[in-house]
Design goal:
Blueprint: H1 2-5, H2 24-51, H3 64-90, H4 101-118, H5 123-151, H6 156-159, H7 161-174, H8 191-200, H9 210-215, H10 220-228, H11 245-261, H12 271-312, H13 319-368, H14 371-376, H15 379-390, H16 393-421, H17 425-469, H18 471-477, H19 480-530, H20 537-578, E1 589-591, E2 598-607, E3 619-627, E4 631-635, H21 642-650, E5 655-663, E6 666-669, E7 678-679, H22 680-685, H23 692-701, H24 705-710, E8 718-719, H25 728-742, E9 746-750, H26 758-772, E10 777-781, E11 793-798, E12 801-806, H27 808-814, H28 816-839, H29 847-851, H30 865-868, H31 891-899, H32 903-930, H33 938-983, H34 987-992, H35 995-1037, H36 1041-1086, H37 1088-1093, H38 1097-1146, H39 1154-1195, E13 1220-1227, E14 1237-1244, E15 1249-1254, H40 1260-1267, E16 1275-1280, E17 1283-1284, H41 1290-1294, E18 1297-1300, E19 1309-1310, H42 1311-1315, H43 1323-1332, H44 1336-1340, E20 1349-1350, H45 1359-1373, E21 1377-1381, H46 1389-1402, E22 1407-1411, H47 1415-1419, E23 1423-1428, E24 1431-1436, H48 1438-1443, H49 1447-1463
Parallel strand pairs: 1-5, 4-10, 4-11, 6-9, 9-10, 15-22, 15-23, 18-21, 21-22
Antiparallel strand pairs: 2-3, 2-5, 7-8, 11-12, 13-14, 13-16, 16-17, 19-20, 23-24
Helix pairs in contact: 2-4, 2-5, 3-4, 3-7, 5-7, 10-36, 11-12, 11-13, 12-13, 12-16, 12-20, 12-39, 13-15, 13-16, 13-38, 15-20, 15-36, 16-20, 17-19, 17-35, 19-20, 19-33, 20-39, 23-26, 28-46, 28-49, 31-39, 32-33, 32-35, 32-39, 33-35, 33-39, 35-36, 35-39, 36-38, 36-39, 38-39, 43-45
Length: 1464
């Protein structure tokens, strides 16, 4: 009976101190340790389920295989418990008094198997169980096979569980869909086919089988497609549902709401972090298990080397022992490889989910952010929350798990050192601690430098973004050099810290490579001093291998801590933003339309943009009672609070007191047109379904029919970013059409006629406001007094109050403020009145007849075909982003070297690298050979080794130093070339290139160039040389390894090329998917008021989510493809290691010296990692070098003509007269595009005032662009004082011209820098110009006066005030030629009259060209030019044009008629 039960049981881990890996007792210990580990996890999960009283209904009955296996497991457990009872009763000696306990453990293990087979477990626990069963089957099979080979028999306790283990293996595969027949319910027979189609469109990860998941084979179809052709965005499969933003964001939002509800007012807890922890904790437990196994396997590798060296010193042949060691080596390396690859992939996958959830949360917050919150967080900062802080989460989990697992690996390695050399490890560990302390100041300096680099980069990017958005004004004013110098000065500060960062890394790299040498030397000395271990090959090379395993933690733990600190900062920033003030639903009570006749009710309400401020409210004592269908006009001087009133009704401005009720849906048209990137049709439909008849009516009502007919792609014409390819009037009418098509109940129109000509304003007012919206409630903010007589009620505002309210007749009777507005208007049309009386034009002019010449709808009446089915000719304005296709070979790398002029530095770095590897290999060889020479003392042994190693560290310093210099030279060269190209690019480039596309190159691509590429070059070269050295050393010991190594290298090359074909395109595509996310967020931030007014938040959020999913899909697939590659390469490289190990076992005893065995294996153990490192960094470098391609694309932009032509510079007094001659001027924006200006010939005499009028889109702004050479003439000439402007430099031309542009633009900074960016003028001159443009009083009342801040895009000033600042600029310059491009469109008539008077006084001797919509603005001009569809149809004195039956006379008559109606 005793013999029957003898199975070398007992506590196997008490093996009488035996440490031989070939021992059956040790091997059983390994099996039992694995079982205990998994049993602990199982019990913990089971306990948690009991505590939570969690009940999950089974998805279905368990199948027969699981039931049979469970019964077998139960029988095995009963058997072990029976053996336990027998052992306990029959024990006879004290030494064996615990042998029964092991059978209790085994019984519990098999009981847990039986329970888990019949219980519904969480998905992740099912996976853990499967891994457990697979490991058990493999380990038990290996043990039993070895028992049979050694003893030719096997005990019953070993035999009986064996077949049950295979049943468990079968169940493990069935858990993941293998060997299971798929059945579908009869009533859903069609659904599996649909599901299959949907699955084919997904990445394949969610329904991949376990083997496919383990080996990343699920990505094979994509890699195969990428190898056959260059991948395009359409080839990228969408994410699986569990990886999509919707899934992650909903989980995060639920946890966020839960935490927010339970949050105390004084809590400082970071809710973002804890919400993320709750959502992603479970999936990170599996990642942690993989990291734990990998660290453990990495730490025991030196012990295996120790066992090999001891085996080579054997006195007798024992091949079984050698094979057992090889088996342990294979198992350890396979587990290490598999766990590392899945840890890396799953940590990034989980990080991607975190990233997506946070990006969605930030965007959702942006849609709900209040006005107070928007002032705290600029658009640039919000974009940074998405593009930097949220994006950082993609790598956070990798760094987090790296941090703790590497720390564990470090402690395990220290344990191995003490186990091998005992107290001799103490001196070395003290030195290691000292080296760590030496690292502290470097780490602190590095952290400070990196922080300063980020701060400097933020400042540069904010400035760059502002410049790019306003490049047209900068070119018109010829400020390119000043703003370029500004960006370069910011870059200089950034470069200073970048230089410090790179050189600090140089010192760190030397210390990193020197530390192991010093530590090893002191450990060897410690062994001699303490006598704790003999200085033989086993000790020496085990110490070296252990120190190598410690090198990775020592290197990456500080980086991991730095990354975690950065993420912590990001968590704080995101937490602050997500907790900021939101729009409260009670700001405006929106009520569904009822039978009530009320539309808007405001009762005794006070509103303020800043509720926390003690200043007076922005709007005071507002009371309104507006009924359905009423037309309300709001007028008043600039800064009176008209736009604020609309914002108050929308709920954008918080109300301090009173009530606001809005009955029905709202449509809003902002004063500054907000247009999305996309087609004209998309902007008008705004997410609504297309109804052709309704759509056509809207187009007609908003006077867009002719404009759309004139576009080559009709209403499918793409609009550039911020509507760059549209005139101001076209943008305004498109957003008006968007509002009309929306068919809301209430319309809030904020000065919609300011950007259109008088005729179009009249058409819009009568056809759109009064006719198409006849039954709607409308609140119209306007400066056009001529329309006031036709509305039901007028609100007159001044100083934030409604000072007068009533009908037109009532207000005329009251007088005061309203009368002042009318008087200003009367003064403006007094000239018209006189002229029209002289010409006998009757006030009863038929307006319809006057409108008719402007409404020739012949082109449009082709059944709407011009609009809905355009004739596609020419290319769209916004072009698809260019990306290289296929393998670029060495070209980008060579460009990187030659553009930076760094060939010499690269050669010097290569020589230093060779020197480093040579001395390092020599040091290792010295130890291997000298260890067996008795005459060599310990001091000599250690001294020579240390000397060679120190020499190698010196070469490391020079290698890193030269590469750092190369990187800095490249950064400077590429930034200089890129900046030069951007500031010298023609305006057409900015019209067709979204700002986000340029910013991506100025931020992430340049960052890659600054930091990643230089050290990627280092890592590739270093790992390649180290790999070849390792192969060489192994081949010198066992030449047979070379055969396998060569085959492996060839296979690796093929696999890498196969992978790189797809990976290269994935990275390129990923480079184009981030910019749309950033652009969309920027666009949303600019138009969030409009989005909220139309209640379109959900639609915009869904569109944004789709963009994020597209970006995340490329990120996930890029990482999956990389892990696919690395898994295969590491497995192949392990073959070299396994071959060497088998050779050491199979070759005769004494054939190879133990020292050389240790030397060879010390390199062999790291050779797989070295090769993986080499391939990984080689792929990274190929991916990074794409940034060089992308920046180089923009460095090759065709430049606009030179700034200065030295041999054709005009005299300094030019232009002395200001005479402008246009000779057969023809202009087109692109080759083969239609002419925008067609054959214009005329002369503007010196000192003349010339008015330019015409329908919106007739070419007025293009004429100005041609004058400033923003667009070069296709033919013809422009002469100024006899000088052809195309023959002189752009700077010489533009500095002599002044302009007030159509869109008033202010830059972030101060009032002083906005008026005088170049710093040419004194404070006294600036104050005088402010006084003339009516701003002195407003600015002198500010605390900082001229140094008062101007926020992004001048948002803290009204549009009218911004226009006055632009006037102040030209008053300072006082050039002989002044251009006013609809300069007074956003100011009231009184202010307009004052400005015109100032311009007449200050520029009385100058040539003034006025592009205007208001007839009074141009009626007193010396000459008037009338443009129509790019042709000059009239050019004469205004009095003569009025006398004839001209288009201008009709325009004047129509305007005068409407004015007289309003004044009568």
């Amino acid at each position: 009976m005793e013999n029957f039960w003898s199975s070398q049981g007992g506590f196997s881990w008490i093996c009488e101190g035996e440490s031989n890996m070939a021992s059956l007792c040790i091997q059983r210990t390994i099996i039992e340790a694995v079982n205990l580990f998994f049993l602990g996890i199982f019990c913990l999960v089971w306990l948690m389920r009991l505590v939570r009283k969690h009940r999950e209904s089974n998805r279905g009955r368990k199948d027969r295989v699981c039931v049979i296996t469970s019964v077998c497991c139960s029988l095995i457990s009963i058997m072990y418990f029976g053996v336990c009872l027998y052992k306990f009763i029959a024990q006879t000696n004290k030494a064996d008094n615990l042998s029964w306990a092991v059978y209790i453990v085994r019984g519990l293990v098999w009981t847990s198997f039986a329970v888990s087979l019949l219980t519904q477990m969480p998905k992740w626990m099912t996976f853990v169980n499967s891994v457990w069963w697979v490991c058990l089957c493999l380990l038990v099979s290996a043990l039993n096979i070895e028992i049979i080979l050694r003893k030719q028999k096997i005990q019953m306790l070993d035999l009986l569980p064996w077949p049950v283990c295979f049943l468990l293996l079968l169940c493990a595969f069935r858990n993941h869909g293998y060997f299971v027949s798929k059945h579908y319910p009869n009533d859903t027979m069609v659904e599996p086919l649909l599901d299959e189609k949907a699955r084919k469109k997904q990445t394949g990860l969610s329904h991949a089988n376990p083997f496919s998941r383990m080996t990343f084979s699920w990505i094979n179809p994509l890699l195969s497609l990428g190898y056959s052709k260059p991948l395009a965005l359409e080839d990228i499969p969408p994410l699986d549902s569990e990886d999509k933003v919707d899934s992650s964001y909903q989980k995060f939002a639920n946890e966020w709401d839960s935490l927010l509800t339970g949050r105390s007012s004084n809590s400082t807890k970071n809710l973002v972090f804890w919400a993320m922890a709750r959502v992603f904790l479970k999936e990170n437990i599996c990642i942690a298990i993989c990291a734990l196994l990998r660290s453990t396997c990495g730490a025991i590798s030196p012990l295996i080397l120790y066992a090999f060296v001891n085996y080579s010193n054997r006195n007798e042949d024992n091949i079984q022992k050698g094979l057992a060691i090889v088996g342990c080596l294979i198992l350890a390396k396979l587990v290490e490889t598999w766990c590392q690859r899945h840890w890396y992939f799953n940590s990034r996958r989980s990080g991607m989910r975190m990233r997506s959830a946070l990006m969605a949360a930030v965007y959702r917050k942006l849609l709900k952010l209040s006005s107070v919150g928007r002032r705290r967080h600029s658009t640039g900062e919000i974009v940074n929350y998405i593009a930097v802080d949220a994006y950082r989460m993609g790598e956070f989990l990798w760094w987090f798990h790296s941090g703790w697992s590497l720390a564990l690996q470090l402690f395990l390695a220290i344990g191995v050192l003490f186990w091998v050399v005992g107290l001799g490890a103490l001196p070395g560990l003290l030195i290691l601690l000292m080296c760590g302390l030496f690292n502290v100041p470097f780490a602190q300096k590095l952290k400070k430098c990196q922080s300063e680099v980020l701060v400097s980069q933020d400042q540069r990017l904010r400035s760059t973004s502002e410049i790019l958005n306003n490049m047209k004004l900068i070119k018109l004013q010829s400020w390119e050099d000043e703003f370029k110098n500004s960006v370069e000065s910011l870059r200089a500060r950034e470069f200073k810290w970048l230089r410090e960062t790179q050189f600090t890394k140089v010192y760190c790299s030397m210390l990193y490579f020197l530390s192991p040498t010093i530590v090893c030397a002191f450990i060897l000395l410690g062994c001699t001093i303490f006598g704790s271990a003999p200085l033989n090959a086993g000790t020496v090379f085990t110490v070296l291998a252990t120190l190598r395993s410690m090198a990775e933690p020592v290197k990456y733990i500080p980086q991991a801590l730095s990354a975690i600190i950065q993420v912590n900062v990001s968590f704080d920033r995101l937490n602050t933003f997500l907790l900021d003030d939101e729009m409260k639903s009670l700001e405006t009570s929106r009520i569904l339309r009822t039978n009530s006749d009320k539309s808007i009710e405001i009762t005794a309400a006070n509103f303020s943009w800043d509720c926390e401020s003690l200043t007076l409210p922005t709007l005071r004592d507002v009371s309104l009672d507006i009924k359905w269908g009423q037309k309300i006009a709001v007028c008043g001087p600039v800064g009176a609070g008209k736009s604020s009133l609309l914002n108050a009704i929308l709920g954008e401005m918080p109300h301090i007191s009173g009530t606001v009720k809005v009955h029905g849906s709202v449509a809003y048209v902002s004063q500054t047109a907000w247009i999305q990137s996309g087609t004209i049709r998309d902007n008008i439909l705004y997410g609504k379904p297309m109804e052709e008849s309704r759509y056509e009516k809207v187009i007609r009502a908003c006077a867009l029919d002719k404009d759309i007919s004139g576009f080559s792609h009709g209403d499918l014409t793409e609009i550039g970013q911020r509507g760059l390819n549209l005139s101001g009037g076209q943008k305004q009418r498109i957003q008006l059409a968007r509002a009309v098509y929306n068919d809301a109940d209430i319309y809030l129109l904020d000065d919609p006629f300011s950007a259109v000509d008088a005729h179009t304003a009249s058409v819009l007012f009568h056809d759109c406001v009064m006719s198409a919206l006849g039954e709607k409630t409308i609140i119209l903010v306007t400066h056009q007094v001529e329309f006031l007589s036709e509305v039901d009620k007028i609100l007159v505002m001044e100083g934030g109050c409604i000072v007068q309210s009533g009908s037109y007749e009532e207000l005329r009777a009251i007088g005061t403020t309203f009368e002042q507005l009318l008087n200003a208007h009367r003064d403006a049309i007094a000239v018209l009145d006189t002229l029209n009386e002289n010409q006998g034009i009757s006030p009863e002019v038929d307006t319809a007849k006057l409108v008719e010449p402007y409404r020739s709808d012949g082109a449009y009446k082709k059944s709407g075909g011009e609009i809905c089915m355009p004739n596609f000719q020419g290319e769209q304005l916004t072009r698809e982003e260019q990306r290289e296709m296929g393998d670029s070979g060495w070209k980008p790398f060579l460009e990187y070297i030659f553009i930076s002029e760094g060939l010499l530095l690269l050669l010097l770095s290569s020589l230093a690298l060779i020197g480093f590897v040579a001395f390092l290999a020599a040091a290792s060889y010295w130890l291997a050979l000298a260890i067996k020479i008795p005459k060599i003392s310990t001091g000599t042994l250690v001294g020579v080794y240390s000397g060679l190693s120190i020499l190698s560290a010196i070469f490391v310093y020079f290698r890193a130093y030269f590469i750092a210099l190369l990187g800095l030279k490249a950064s400077k060269a590429f930034f200089s070339g890129f900046t030069h190209a951007i500031f010298n690019a023609p305006m057409s480039f900015f019209d067709s290139t979204p700002v986000g596309r340029i910013l991506t190159r100025a931020s992430s691509d340049l960052g890659t160039l600054d930091i990643d590429i230089p050290f990627a070059i280092t890592y590739v070269a270093h790992s390649m040389v180290e790999f070849l050295t390792g192969i060489g050393i192994m081949a010198s010991v066992t030449w047979q390894v070379l055969i396998v190594a060569v085959l492996v290298i060839v296979a690796t090359k093929y696999i890498k090329d196969y992978y790189q074909a797809s990976a290269r395109e994935l990275v390129r595509i990923n480079g184009t998917t981030k910019a749309p996310v950033v652009n969309y967020a920027t666009e949303t931030s600019a138009g969030v008021v409009t989005i909220r007014a139309f209640n379109m938040m959900d639609r915009f959020f869904q569109t944004y989510v789709n963009l994020v999913d597209t970006d995340a899909a490329t990120f996930l697939l890029t990482n999956a493809a990389l892990e696919w590659l690395l898994l295969r390469i590491e497995m192949l490289q392990n073959l070299v290691l396994f071959t060497a190990a088998f050779l050491f076992v199979l070759l005769p005893k004494g054939y190879i010296a133990p020292g050389l065995v240790g030397l060879s294996l010390s390199y062999a153990l790291s050779i797989a990692k070295t090769k993986v490192y080499c391939v990984q960094w080689c792929c990274n470098l190929e991916n990074y070098i794409i940034s060089v391609e992308r920046i180089k694309q923009f460095m090759l932009i065709p430049e606009e003509p030179p700034k200065i032509v030295e041999d054709k510079r005009p005299p300094s007094s030019w232009p002395s007269g200001g005479r402008i001659e246009l000779q057969n001027l023809k202009v087109r924006y692109r080759p083969n595009a239609p002419l925008v200006l067609d054959g214009i010939t005329c002369t503007f005499k010196e000192g003349a005032r010339v008015g330019v009028v015409g329908r919106t889109g007739s070419g007025k702004t293009t004429l100005i662009s041609a004058l400033f050479r923003l667009v070069e003439p296709a033919s013809g000439e422009i002469l100024i004082d006899g000088v052809n402007i195309c023959s002189i430099g752009l700077k010489d031309l533009r500095m002599k011209l002044s302009i007030i542009p159509q869109e008033p633009i202010l830059f972030r900074g101060s009032i002083r820098t906005n008026l005088d960016p170049v710093g040419q003028y004194s404070d006294d001159e600036i104050w005088k110009s402010l006084e003339k443009c009516q701003l002195k009083e407003a600015i002198s009342s500010l605390p900082n006066q001229l140094d008062s801040p101007v926020s992004d895009e001048g948002e803290n000033w009204s549009v009218g005030q911004r226009q006055l600042f632009c006037l102040g600029r030209v008053l300072l310059k006082r050039n002989r030629i002044l251009v006013l491009d609809e300069a007074t469109a956003s100011v009231d008539s009184a202010t307009d009259a004052i400005l015109q008077r100032i311009i007449r006084q200050e520029f009385s001797e100058c040539t003034v060209i006025t592009v205007a919509h208001r007839v009074p603005t141009v009626i007193d001009s010396d000459m008037v030019m009338v443009l129509s569809y790019g042709k000059m149809v009239e050019f004469d004195e205004p009095s003569k044009l009025i006398e004839s039956n001209s288009l201008f006379s009709k325009l004047v008559a129509e305007y005068w008629s409407s004015c007289n109606k309003s004044c009568s």
